[in-house]
Amino acid sequence: MVRAFLLVLALSASLPAANTLDVGFIDVEGGQATLLVSPSGESMLVDAGWPGYDGRDADRIAAAAKQAGIKKIDYFVATHYHRDHVGGVEQLISRIPIVNYVDHGPSVESGGAADQLLSSYGTARDQGKHIVVKPGDHIPIRGLNVTVVSAAGNVLKSPLKGGGAPNPLCASATRRDEDKTENAQSVGILVEYGKFRFLDLGDLTWNKEIDLVCPNNPIGTIDVYLTTHHGMNMSGPDTIVHALRPRVAIMNNGAKKGGTPEAWQVVKTSPGLEDIWQVHYSLAGGAGHNVAEPMIANMEEKCEGKGIQFSAKSDGAFTVTNLRNGHSKKYAARK
User: Fold this and answer.
1) pLDDT tens digits, residue range 42-71?
2) CATH code of residue 308
3) What is the enclosing helix (H) or strand (E) of 322?
4) Residue 335 domain-assigned?
5) CB contact at 8 A, 129 and 74
6) Domains in the chain: how many in total?
7) In the predicted structure, residue 14 carries a pLDDT above the cut 90
8) Which of 64, 80, 101, 129 could form an S-S bond across to 125 if both were Cys, CB 3.0 to 4.6 Å?
9) What domain range is 174 assigned to?
């Protein structure tokens, strides 16, 4: 069976079903929605984009799931309670059922729009099983090792396999004002399939990212990094990005959200980085802080909602594909 993660025309790429971890970064216009399908066929969706827009984001996620041959979401991970991450959940469950809801527990935000958002998310969550996680917990998806590295303002301290080395970048790290919003509460996960490693920290912000890798880096190095907080400059200090040494970075930015020149440059200069792939061309980045056109899924602000996908093997090799133009690149396993 062939998997693909977005509705595409003749230029669309497809993913092999057997023996691969398949991940699609769905364009939810500067929000977050990442669909993972394990070699066992189990699925995990990280966040669900925005509400409203005539169900735009829910439709895109449901279409991606259908193309992947997925009839249910086994695990939904709510990184934190903001509209661009969990606002689309209630619309989504009218299109595809969700079995397990994973989050960090109570929100640190309340009143008005925050309460309304939590009510909408709670309505959906009450229809499934609720799992509250903390750093060090595992999300039990067959065929993968999914470790929670941040949640509810706390971060992983016990080293994982390959991690634990002192981080020399901590000596020059500069902290910022405390972030008291839901962003700093983000559930961050490390997904491992054999030797392959993928990291998604949600919208975790500057100080918490430093806390995660200082004085020691418990994670070690990774293969694919989803830029934290859509590539905004309130996240993604070199203290963490350069310590992780990703081979490839995926920027889930919008045309006018994320992809800031400062954050883009930190990623671009990370040791060992081979490529950045972007969901959108960043208007703020201009010619100097965007990658080449073949590696950007959406070039126009008013776009068709194309995405980026990758397929990884257990030996650490993986392939990234731009679903707008079919441009694809293979990355060999580390020696």
Assistant:
1) 999 999 999 999 999 999 999 999 999 999
2) 3.60.15.10
3) strand 318-322
4) no
5) no
6) 1
7) no
8) 101
9) 2-7+14-325
> Does 13 score more than 60 pLDDT?
no
Residue with tokens 């912000």: 205
Q: For the chain, give the mean pLDDT.
A: 94
Q: What stretches of the chain show up as alpha helix (H) in DSSP? A: 56-67, 83-86, 89-92, 113-125, 206-213, 238-244, 261-268
Tokens read off for 52: 């409203």
Burial of 330 per CB tally in 10 Å (0-12, 13-18, 19+): exposed
Amino acid identity at 50? W
Whether 5 shows a pLDDT value over 80: the answer reads no
Report yes or no on 331 lying in a domain: no
Q: Are strands 224-226 and 196-200 parallel, antiparallel or unpaired?
A: parallel
Q: What pLDDT, in 10s, does the model give residues 134-151? A: 999 999 999 999 999 999
Q: Select from 76, 63, 82, 85 the least CA-distant residue to 124.
A: 76
Reported as a single tens digit per residue, the pLDDT across 216-235 is 999 999 999 999 999 999 99
Q: From CA 199, how far away is CA 249, in angstroms rounded?
A: 10
Residue 333 included in any domain:
no
How far apart CA 88 and CA 171 sit, in angstroms, is: 41
Residue 251 in domain: yes
